[in-house]
Amino acid sequence: MQNVFMNIEHVRALAAVVDEGTVEGGAFVLGITASATSQRIRALESRLGQVLIRRTNPITVTEAGEAVLKYAREIELLESETIDRLHGLAIGADALAGPGPGPRPAPTLLRIGVNADSLSTWFRPVFAEVASWDDIVIRIEVVDQDKALPLLTSGDVLGTVTSASRRGYGTRVERLGTMRYVAVATRGLAERFGSGAEVDLRSMPMVKFGHDDDLQLDFLARAGIAAAPPVSVVPSSWEFAHAVAAGVGWGLIPVMQLDRLEARSDLVRITATPFADVPLYWHRWTLASEKLARLTAALHRAAATMS
């Protein structure tokens, strides 16, 4: 395929409508009309000879659109860092002569994916580090740890925490650590469905985080149980833990949360193999970005608390 030049304003229009979900929303962010925004995207599609977005509500990207959206995110990040460097040079030059460096550049937006359990436990020190940076803001997409990679592939995020270890095209992967989950239930629930540490997991009610959460089902499969018991769904990390502590059902809770729950509940560990270890990896774009490297270092420092 011959080299094809993409107009950067057309690429920005694509990213804007995907971010906002509609052409009108993207147009508002860009400060132009909806008609002009549509024309830019159609011109880009014509230039590339491929459909880039699905004009649904909200707007989504096609496979070709994913590649262009990722390019748009990379340009956004590298452009922001270049402006920061130029601003720094201008401050230095101002000490000698000439006009001042102008207003401080807008902070760089770093979009990342993090699973809910990590967000509620070991990830929290990252917030303290980000709070000390005046040149970075973060936008977090909450996603299950084994369903996160599509966000990276599509360009929705520039890095994500996931349980998958295999590196994708144009990305690098670094191990963060292992998150241990413990199978627990209230003492009363465990006594109703078993004796001692052994319970009947085929009939004992269970709590899941969400429809995409396979952690409990995988645990049952390893125990040789194919059919799912009665299931309640609680799609929030701490509310999930409190639902288990209230006796709604058994569940797998991160050890880092369990330590805080056991002091004020009657939770007991169930089954002969009561834990599941989930390895976590940080997948990110392969870019020479100081800000992305800084965020990566903060993640590693925070993840060290998992061990």
From TrEMBL:
MF (Gene Ontology): DNA binding; DNA-binding transcription factor activity
Pfam families hit by this protein: HTH_1 (PF00126), LysR_substrate (PF03466)
Keywords: DNA-binding, Transcription, Transcription regulation
InterPro entries: LTTR, LysR_HTH_N, LysR_subst-bd, WH-like_DNA-bd_sf, WH_DNA-bd_sf
Ranges of residues in domain HTH lysR-type: 6-62
Protein family according to the UniProt entry: Belongs to the LysR transcriptional regulatory family.
NCBIfam families attached to this UniProt entry: PRK03635.1
Entry protein name: LysR family transcriptional regulator (Chromosome initiation inhibitor)
Biological source species: Brevibacterium celere
